């Protein structure tokens, strides 16, 4: 497979903070419909890697190509337009708007008019909201104020808001933190489903959950990749057991 077949190609990526390399000549390829989970001890550089891909942090060296377009130097909002979505741990939803409205304002053409909520709700947008609401298990909560949802439902709503923009790469940082076991099961189902037609990168610590969802696992340590492959192979790797799983 040539490098152009990947959704995301990260090559020799490095970022240093005051001389400390949080990411150190890291190379990583993600396939178009792949669900990749990144694991590793605290401080390994997992969040920094996602920050570099979405443009929140600037690289010191190396290259990040998404759909063959070089991202290095590109502003964060342009990366969003190119199809990169990022969910942080704390949901950033509009608590006083309904589920429907939260999804509606996330529809790409709504961006420019959002300030005033002077938004024309076309049938096309309504259909998109309905489809996403079904995906995120909130079809029967469309008119509920977002602030009244459970913690897990708020997390799903934020994923839904990202899905409204039809990202081709979705990155999620610990998506099941604070969720009930039922919500975790549903989130696994959701993530597997959304990776059917896009690349998904998840940072996760819960190994049972990782085993359930990952196509491939990347283990990071000290800004580098320690191991990569299917979960069972990675779990049995003595290097991984030594720095991470054995603790
Ligand atoms: P992880 O997500 O794997 O826990 P992080 O990516 O958050 O790790 O952090 C990797 C390392 O980089 C840590 O040592 C952290 O302190 C450092 N780091 C991250 N962001 C910054 C920053 N903006 N300035 C200085 N150091 C940072």
Automatic annotation (TrEMBL):
<dbReference type="InterPro" id="IPR032823">
    <property type="entry name" value="BCA_ABC_TP_C"/>
</dbReference>
<dbReference type="InterPro" id="IPR003439">
    <property type="entry name" value="ABC_transporter-like_ATP-bd"/>
</dbReference>
<dbReference type="InterPro" id="IPR051120">
    <property type="entry name" value="ABC_AA/LPS_Transport"/>
</dbReference>
<dbReference type="Pfam" id="PF12399">
    <property type="entry name" value="BCA_ABC_TP_C"/>
</dbReference>
<dbReference type="Pfam" id="PF00005">
    <property type="entry name" value="ABC_tran"/>
</dbReference>
<keyword id="KW-0472">Membrane</keyword>
<dbReference type="InterPro" id="IPR027417">
    <property type="entry name" value="P-loop_NTPase"/>
</dbReference>
<feature type="domain" description="ABC transporter">
    <location>
        <begin position="8"/>
        <end position="247"/>
    </location>
</feature>
<dbReference type="InterPro" id="IPR017781">
    <property type="entry name" value="ABC_transptr_urea_ATP-bd_UrtD"/>
</dbReference>
<dbReference type="GO" id="GO:0005886">
    <property type="term" value="C:plasma membrane"/>
</dbReference>
<dbReference type="InterPro" id="IPR003593">
    <property type="entry name" value="AAA+_ATPase"/>
</dbReference>
<dbReference type="GO" id="GO:0005524">
    <property type="term" value="F:ATP binding"/>
</dbReference>
<keyword id="KW-1003">Cell membrane</keyword>
<keyword id="KW-0547">Nucleotide-binding</keyword>
<keyword id="KW-0813">Transport</keyword>
<protein>
    <submittedName>
        <fullName>Urea transport system ATP-binding protein</fullName>
    </submittedName>
</protein>
<dbReference type="GO" id="GO:0016887">
    <property type="term" value="F:ATP hydrolysis activity"/>
</dbReference>
<keyword id="KW-0067">ATP-binding</keyword>
């Amino acid at each position: 497979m040539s490098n152009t077949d990947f959704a995301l190609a990260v090559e020799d990526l490095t970022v240093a903070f005051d001389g400390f390399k949080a990411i150190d000549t890291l190379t990583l390829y993600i396939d178009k419909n792949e669900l990749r989970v990144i694991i590793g001890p605290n401080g390994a550089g997992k969040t920094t890697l996602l920050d570099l891909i979405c443009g929140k942090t600037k690289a010191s060296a190396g290259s990040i190509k998404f759909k063959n377009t070089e991202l290095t130097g590109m502003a964060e909002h342009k990366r969003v337009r190119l199809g990169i979505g990022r969910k942080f741990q704390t949901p950033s939803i509009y608590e006083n708007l309904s589920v429907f409205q939260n999804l509606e304002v996330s529809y790409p053409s709504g961006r420019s008019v959002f300030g005033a909520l002077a938004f024309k709700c076309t049938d096309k947008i309504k259909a998109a909201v309905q489809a996403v609401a079904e995906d995120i298990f909130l079809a029967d909560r469309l008119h509920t104020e977002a602030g009244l949802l459970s913690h897990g439902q708020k997390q799903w709503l934020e994923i839904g808001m990202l899905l409204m923009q039809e990202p081709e790469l979705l990155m999620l940082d610990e998506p099941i933190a604070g969720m009930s076991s039922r919500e975790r099961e549903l989130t696994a189902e959701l993530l597997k489903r959304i990776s059917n037609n896009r690349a998904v990168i998840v940072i996760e610590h819960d190994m049972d959950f990782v085993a359930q969802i990952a196509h491939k696992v990347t283990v990071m340590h000290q800004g580098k990749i320690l191991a990569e492959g299917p979960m069972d192979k990675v779990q049995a790797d003595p290097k991984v057991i030594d720095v991470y799983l054995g603790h």
